[in-house]
Design brief:
Blueprint: H1 9-15, H2 22-28, E1 30-35, E2 38-39, E3 43-45, E4 51-52, H3 54-66, E5 69-74, H4 77-86, E6 92-93, H5 101-104, E7 107-109, E8 114-123, E9 140-144, H6 148-157, E10 163-167, H7 170-178, E11 184-188, H8 189-198, E12 203-215, E13 218-220, H9 225-239, H10 241-249
Parallel strand pairs: 1-5, 1-6, 9-10, 9-11
Antiparallel strand pairs: 2-3, 3-4, 7-13, 8-11, 8-12
Helix pairs in contact: 1-4, 3-9
Length: about 250
């Protein structure tokens, strides 16, 4: 998603020396993916506790192309971006991570693999009659911490008189939305579609999109795994497998 980043010079200096390479990954026989599995349909825990989703299948395709197995590690987003990547704790990260110039100073991104947007999620029927653009003065808007949604809310909504409530956990924001404690919750467009599919009538999208953004796979700065990821993305698109994954995981509108 998404997800803001403080650019620290120390991380820039350290990331190059800790960058996992294709050769290193092949030598150890495993590609370690870090993800925050709270972002359906991109990454979430299935009934048996296994992490699954659109991002996971793409990472699995990369591991297959490298001839190694994929290991998925659940990492909270605050620790995932960028610390888990720059420290070498994981070889790569996928968690609906938006490509931004600030982040690109610290990590290496693959080519974009999904076009998304930050949107407003409201209760079914929109009882608060929330709209955007519109009068948000006095409205409380929820955002998840360290996300591009939080950035956009601070830049666009707060100056117009909205109160921004920050949640460490997206589910906590949804709980407050259900209870009517906030007027809307900012999230990624596919999340709304997934909620509407799983919980018919409970949630809806309101108003215009707040931002548009591209997701990318994340690697330590300078890692040649980024180029390998681009080759995998090109293969998936050419073979039709990418579209199959979209059909499998993403509710298409």
């Amino acid at each position: 998603m998404k997800r803001a980043l403080l650019v620290l010079s120390a991380l820039v200096l350290s990331s190059a020396s800790l960058a996992a390479t294709v050769a290193q990954v092949k030598k150890k026989g495993v590609l370690v993916l870090g993800t925050d599995p709270t972002f359906a349909p991109f990454e979430f825990k299935g009934p048996g506790g296994e992490v699954q989703g659109f991002d996971i299948d793409i990472a699995r395709a990369l591991a297959k192309d490298l001839g190694v197995r994929l290991e998925v590690r659940s990492v909270g987003f605050g620790a995932l971006m960028p610390q888990a990547v720059t420290s070498g704790r994981v070889d790569m990260a996928m968690s609906g991570i938006t490509i931004t110039p600030e982040r690109a100073k610290v990590v290496s991104f693959s080519a974009p693999y999904y076009r998304s947007a930050q949107v407003f999620i409201v209760r079914g029927g929109n009882p608060g009659k929330f709209t955007w653009p519109g009068d948000v003065k006095g409205k409380t808007i929820g955002v998840q911490a360290n996300t591009t949604g939080q950035y956009a809310a601070g830049d666009l909504l707060k100056p117009k008189g909205a109160t921004i409530k920050v949640y460490d956990d997206f589910a906590a924001g949804l709980a407050d939305l259900r209870a009517g404690r906030i007027a809307a919750l900012i999230g990624d467009a596919p999340t709304v579609a997934d909620l509407q599919k799983r919980l018919p009538g409970q949630y809806a999208k309101a108003g215009q999109d707040l931002t548009a953004e591209d997701y990318g796979m994340v690697f330590a700065k300078g890692s040649d795994l980024a180029a390998a990821a681009n080759r995998t993305l090109a293969r998936l698109r050419a073979s039709g497998e990418y579209q199959q994954l979209l059909n499998k995981w993403i509710v298409q509108k």
